[in-house]
Write a structure and sequence with these properties.
By secondary structure, the protein is an alpha+beta fold. It is built from 17 helices and 18 strands. The chain has a 7-stranded antiparallel β-sheet with strand order 15-12-14-13-17-18-16, with helices on both faces. A 5-stranded antiparallel β-sheet has the order 5-6-10-8-9.
Length: 489
């Protein structure tokens, strides 16, 4: 197609007919559960399912199905598998690598109706819920019981927990609560032939055989559809403190991180890095008072979570004094109440939304050893300037280059903000960025996944042997290949 010139529709997949649609309508039994663009024009209704959050990927799906139960999902997939109809599972559609958008005419299976919270064990903290629950809703539910969902990210108001698990999202507090590979205790998933894999263990320990659910964590809908989850929630800390620092160099940001771990130790719950460019852009787009008076090349946001507010606040202030007097940080502020905490976080969480303002961004979500992590931002900026692509006028496709991310997890978000997506820019960026990462034994996909954006580059972070094994797993689980085709591997 024009959208993806290097891809062709796999002729093995059947094209949707009115008979197929009639089967789904009969199965789901209510008009609102099917968006039918096969029998009539439904382009406007289909559009939100055919376009991603960044407006970068566009699909041609003509049928959206909204199952209401695991049984519905099972019957849909069995029918699709038998009739060679390709599908794309879709959660909140906030993914950043094009994984949730069909490439051609795949059927979208949208999980939003499956949004029941089933149970919560107040003793152990294990939460049983449907995959289509919105992350923020799940967190609010456990908050009332004194617990916290072990994942938090900027898209929490619309992403689904099933989408989070399927991308193995990392987010803002992985440093404290670890990865979903540890906190997902149980899972129910439907395989492409309709088989229901029930592994809804609610206990932390279960070493009976291969841990198959792990394969679905980060599988991006290529092996089956996740329908239910058991998630280990942590005790919510009653005392939260947040500080924001301005720093003169990236070396100093590394020192501040080392000191934060040493001095704040068990109460440290987030350590985020923002460069000066990202903060200037947020200020330009949103306005408002900046947290610190002067501009700095780097900022760090530090959060502590503990059980004793006074003790934690004292510890944080002492830490601040120490790094200030040793000239590790140039300036800093500690939030005094909940609204100031929210405000400081908004300077970090708001970046993703603001930087798309000029038209789009090329995103590289990468893991790099900390000592080298930020230098890629300078190098990419220099390359784009030297190629005459970065500047202030409409002639220049690139507005700016910036970096921010989860410093505590060695995870940088390199973003190239553009006025338009442009082939010349792409040529400067790729494969250069991936080669740079490979040389440092980094990962080309730290937390967002592969989707369509990175499927051709997996070899920069995984060996041929490992990719071969992954392909065998894909064939074992999905022999007909209907699950989210053209992506991942
Ligand atoms: P979708 O986008 O709908 O889908 C993502 C992938 O999962 C697709 O491949 C889809 O096919 C598959 N999928 C979805 N649901 C299911 C299911 N039930 N079964 C099987 N497959 C399924 N990510 C981070 O890791 N950390 C961050 O800090 C972070 N911050 C973000 C901030 C913003 C503002 C935005 C827009 C995105 C951010 N992301 C972040 C990206 C992140 O991947 C998503 O926000 C989230 O995890 C995806 O959930 P979703 O429900 O929107 O999934
Ligand atoms: C974040 O940490 C997200 O804010 C999004 O992972 C990163 O937009 C990005 O590049
Ligand atoms: Zn992130």
């Amino acid at each position: 197609t024009d959208t993806y010139p290097s891809l062709t529709r796999d002729p093995r997949f059947a094209k949707l007919t009115p008979e197929h649609v009639a089967f789904f309508k009969e199965l789901l039994g209510q008009d609102s559960a099917v968006i039918d663009g096969v029998n009539a024009n439904a382009d406007a209704d289909l559009e939100p399912f055919n376009e991603d959050w960044m407006h970068k990927y566009k699909g041609q799906c003509r049928l959206v199905l909204k199952p209401g139960s695991t049984e519905d999902v099972s019957k849909i997939l069995r029918y699709c598998n038998e009739n060679k109809l390709a599908v794309v599972p879709q959660g909140g559609n906030t993914g950043l690598v094009g994984g949730s958008i069909p490439v051609f005419d795949e059927i979208v299976i949208s999980m939003g109706r499956m949004n029941t919270i089933h149970s919560f064990d107040e003793m152990s903290g294990s939460l049983v819920l449907d995959a289509g629950c919105i992350l923020e809703v799940a967190d609010q539910y456990v908050a009332e019981k004194g617990y916290i969902f072990p994942l938090d990210l900027g898209a929490k108001g619309s992403c689904h927990v099933g989408g989070n698990v399927s991308t193995n999202a990392g987010g803002l507090r992985l440093l404290r609560y670890g990865s979903l590979h540890g906190s997902v205790l149980g899972m129910e998933a439907v395989l492409p032939d309709g088989t229901v894999m029930n592994d809804m263990c609610t206990l932390r320990k279960n070493n009976t055989g291969y841990d198959l659910k792990q394969l679905f964590i980060g599988a991006e809908g290529t092996l089956g559809i996740v329908t239910k989850l058991v998630v280990q929630c942590a005790q919510r800390s009653p005392a939260i403190n947040v500080a924001l620092f301005g720093l003169e160099s990236y070396e100093k940001a590394q020192k501040a991180f080392r000191e934060a771990k040493l001095q704040l130790s068990e109460i440290l719950s987030a350590f985020e890095l923002m460069d000066g460019t990202s903060q200037r852009l947020v200020h330009k787009i949103r306005g408002g008072n900046k947290p610190l008076e002067n501009d700095y090349p780097f900022y760090c946001l530090v959060e502590t979570s503990g059980s004793n507010s006074e003790h934690d606040y004292e510890k944080l202030e002492k830490f601040l004094e120490d790094v200030m007097s040793n000239e590790v940080i140039a300036d800093g502020v500690v939030a005094q109440d909940a609204s100031q905490i929210k405000n400081l976080w908004s300077w970090r969480e708001g970046i993703t939304e603001c930087i798309g303002h000029w038209g789009g961004t090329y995103k590289y979500d990468v893991s790099i050893p900390l000592s080298d992590m930020y230098s890629i931002v300078h190098e990419v900026k220099d390359r784009l300037s030297a190629a005459g692509l970065l500047g202030d006028t409409d002639k220049h496709p690139v507005v700016d280059v910036l970096g921010y991310g989860h410093m505590g997890d060695s995870n940088l978000h390199l973003n190239i903000c553009v006025r338009r997506y442009d082939k010349e820019v792409e040529k400067v960026l790729e494969p250069y960025v991936y080669e740079w990462i490979e040389k440092r034994q980094g990962s080309i996909s730290a937390e967002h996944g592969l989707g369509l954006a990175k499927k051709n580059y997996i070899g920069y972070s995984r060996s041929g042997t490992m990719i071969g094994l992954m392909k065998q797993i894909k064939t074992l689980y999905d022999p007909v290949g209907i699950m989210n085709p053209y992506k991942y591997i």
